[in-house]
Amino acid sequence: MHQHTHLPAPPPTATQEQEQTQDQDQSREQEEPAWHRVRRPHWNCATCGDPYPCAPARTALTDLYAQDLPGLAMLMASDLHEAIKDLWRLHPDGPPQTVHELFDRFVGWTRQPEPPWPQPTAAMISSETSKFA
Predict the structure, then answer these.
(1) CA–CA separation, 68 vs 83, rounded Å?
(2) What is the Cα–Cα distance from 106 to 104, expressed in whole angstroms?
(3) What is the pLDDT of residues 31-68, one digit of tens each?
C-alpha cells in the first residue's frame, strides 16, 4: 500500500502577499480610528505622518482594547512582524530603526507599568493592623 505524503504549501507569490496585506489593512480599518491608521510600507500614520502607531492611534487602540490588553499586545506584535518585513524590503542594508527600537515602538507601549513594590492586599493590611491591637 502506498502512503501519500503531504507536502507543505508553496510560499505565497508576491501578488498573493500583496492581496493578503491589502485584506489585512482593510480589516484593520474597522479596528483603528479612521483618521489615524497606518500607511504601508513605510509604517507612518496616514494622517499626521508620525511613525505608526502615533499617539492618537495608541490612545484609540488602548480604548478599543481596554478589556483585552493581551489582545492589543498580540495585534501590535503582528504589526511589528509586518513592519520588519516591509522595512527590510525598503532598506535592504537595514531599516532606520533597530529591532529593539521597533519592538518598543510597536509592542513596548502596550505593557502596563509595574508598580515599584507589591501592592498591599486586604489580608496583608489586616495582619499588620492586628499587631498593634
Answers:
(1) 23
(2) 6
(3) 554 578 999 999 999 999 999 999 999 999 999 999 99
Spans of all domains in the chain: 22-112
Task: Return the closest-CA partner of residue 39 out of 50, 23, 31.
Answer: 50
* Residue among 107, 95, 5, 15 at smallest CA distance from 61: 107
Which residue is listed with cell 527590510? 88
Q: Using CA of residue 28, residue 34, residue 36, residue 38, what is the dihedral sign?
A: positive
What is the distance between the alpha carbons of residues 99 and 84, in angstroms, rounded to a whole number?
Answer: 8
Helix residue ranges per DSSP H, 4-98: 14-31, 55-64, 69-90
CA distance linking residue 84 with residue 13, whole number of Å: 19
Q: Which cell goes with 69?
A: 490588553
Residue at 28: amino acid letter? R
H or E, element range at 66: none
